[in-house]
Amino acid sequence: MGEGPQNRMVFVLYLEIMAVNKKKIILLVIVLFFISIYFIVVLKGLNKNAGNEQAVKETGFVPAENFYKYSFKAANIISQKIKTEFSIEKIDKENKEDFDIRLRNKLNELLNFPLSRIPESAISLETLQIFPLTELGDEPVDKGKYIEKKIYFYTSNISFADAYLLIPKNVEFPAPAIIAMHQHGDTKYGIEEIVGHIGDETMFYAKELAEQGYIVLAMNSDSFGDRRIDVIDSDDIIEKIDAQDLFIMGLNPLGVVVQEDLVSFGLLLSIDIVDKNNIGCIGHSFGGIRCMYLAALDKRVKAVVLSNSIADTRKNPQSGISHTWLGILPGIGKYAETKEILGLIAPRPLITFNGEKDPILPALQTKEQLAELEKLYQRLGKESNLVTELMKNKSHEFPIEFRKMAYKFLDEHLKNQKK
Predict the structure, then answer these.
(1) Is the separation of the CB atoms in 398 and 307 below 8 Å?
(2) Which in 28, 195, 230, 330 has the greatest CB count within 10 A?
(3) 314 touches 295 (CB < 8 A)
């Protein structure tokens, strides 16, 4: 073979090699271009961080004017400077409905009802009542002006509660009705106290309302009365253990309490002798807190009486006041104060009582919460529906003269306006 053909073959091979190398060179250039862009961006970021670090070094650490040995308290103080998401000051006639929907949804989310729900259509005395009365020896008792019945009913598919149903005599049915909620107290008598069986006579408001002609339902909240656990530990320790067990699971005791209160309210609504358009709620202390949440969540509660129940949701870390674990709603302080929750009741009839010398729910806190609530009722054109009563020289109590005032208020809104 001659040199000519060999040279042509070499030349062709050279061209092929150069073509391949050209592709690689182009690819290499592209890769190098993107790498250079990446490093430029990174270097700019490093320079910026270096500038920030330099700024920090130049600024230095500046302690606050007030500082604390207790970091839990410090964290609480910081959090209290954050404004709540909901504000009663912003409510008017035009946006009230939207405010109510949004805050009710948030309350339901925070309460996070843990028990299986009973469909509202299934809530009735016939469906939920358990344990025949004769089996437990709890026959109806004639109390003179009313009949007292002890009932037991499901609050979920795996839980039940006990309650008293008080039915007045010599009244026209259907009659107005009251959900009566017991206080906490050191004795934890529960409903046995408010129906007048035992304890402080100033707490006998369920009994007195039945004598006034109201159908009254009073249910024991968990850990009260017959629902107390019989153990050697104190009630406070048991309450704390129960609360902590629920907190660990992302739940809370108040969610259980309110969920059962909603079932009891539904039960009262289902009774045919009850005037469903005229149902009220009354409670003292912890009972008032329960009453507030029930009325806030269910608009069918027409009139509300709260005795010594109102204070800040954001506990003052310097007050030294300790409240029951059962009334704490985790997370509520981020979204609303008590005045916003009470705003859900507006413009329905509401009367509040607070002791001037109440050591548990200080009068100053109550006054601050009610001040904005009064303005809301005015904006809604229903200022006469709100009555706030400061009980001069009174402590955490519900004296007879103020209970009579509460009963008169209920009569005005539940009896005189029957349809």
Answers:
(1) yes
(2) 195
(3) no
pLDDT at residue 1 in the model: 47
The answer to whether the peptide bond before residue 317 is cis (omega within 30 degrees of 0) is: no
Assign 25 to helix, strand or coil.
helix
Q: What is the pLDDT of residue 204?
A: 98
175-193 tens-digit pLDDT: 999 999 999 987 789 999 9
Please give the structure tokens belonging to residue 7.
């040279």
Closest C-alpha among 328, 296, 256, 374 to residue 107: 296
150's enclosing H/E stretch is: strand 146-156
Report the C-alpha gap between 278 and 304 in whole angstroms. 11
How do residues 337-356 score in pLDDT, each as one tens digit?
999 999 999 999 999 999 99
Q: Which helix (H) or strand (E) holds 282?
A: strand 274-284
**Spatial distance between the Cα atoms of 40 and 38, rounded to a whole number of angstroms:** 5
pLDDT in tens, 373-409: 999 999 999 999 999 999 999 999 999 999 999 999 9
Element (H, E) at 406: helix 400-410
Angle between helices 253-270 and 286-297 (to 10 degrees): 60
| Cβ neighbours, 10 Å, residue 74 | 15
pLDDT on residue 317:
44
Per-residue pLDDT tens digits for 299-312: 999 999 999 999 88
Give CA–CA dist 155/263, Å, rounded.
6
Q: Give the predicted TM-score (pTM) of the model.
A: 0.82
As to burial, measured by CB atoms within 10 angstroms (0-12 exposed, 13-18 middle, 19+ buried), residue 284 is buried
Q: How far is it, in rounded angstroms, from Cα 112 to Cα 91?
A: 26
Distances in whole angstroms, Cα of residue 125 to Cα of each of 30, 129, 149: 80, 5, 13
Q: Which residue pairs, CB below 8 angstroms and at least 24 apart, start in 170-173?
A: 170/145, 171/213, 173/273
Q: Taking all residues of the chain, what is their mean pLDDT, rounded to a whole number?
A: 86
Q: What totals of helices (H) and strands (E) does the chain contain, helices first?
A: 14, 9
CB 166 within 8 A of CB 210: yes
- Distance of alpha carbon 24 from alpha carbon 18, whole angstroms: 10
Q: What's the burial of 238, exposed, middle or buried (CB within 10 Å: 0-12/13-18/19+)?
A: middle
